Amino acid sequence: xxxxxxxxxxxxxxxxxxxxxxxxxxxxxxxxxxxxxxxxxxxxxxxxxxxxxxxxxxxxxxxxxxxxxxxxxxxxxxxxxxxxxxxxxxxxxxxx
Length: 96
Prior knowledge:
The chain is built from five helices and no strands. The chain is mainly alpha-helical. Interacts with the iron-sulfur protein subunit within the SDH catalytic dimer. InterPro entries: SDHAF3/Sdh7.
C-alpha cells in the first residue's frame, strides 16, 4: 500500500497547485484511515479504486481528471462517505 500511496503523490505533481494540495491531503487521510482495516475484500476494493484513479492521472489525454459516480456507487456509500464527497466537492470548487 505504501508504494501505491507514493505513486499517487508523485502523480499529483502534475496537477495545478490547489488541486495537488487538496488531492495530497485527501489521499493521505484516506490511507491513514484505512491503516487498521483487516478485511481482505475491503482492502482489495480500496486498492482497486485508488489504482483506477492513478491510471486516470497517468493517462496522456487527461483533459479532465475523474469520472462521474454512478447512482449505484453513491447508493452504496455510507453517510460519512457521502459527507466526505460533499466536502471534497466544495473544497475543489473553492467554497469551503
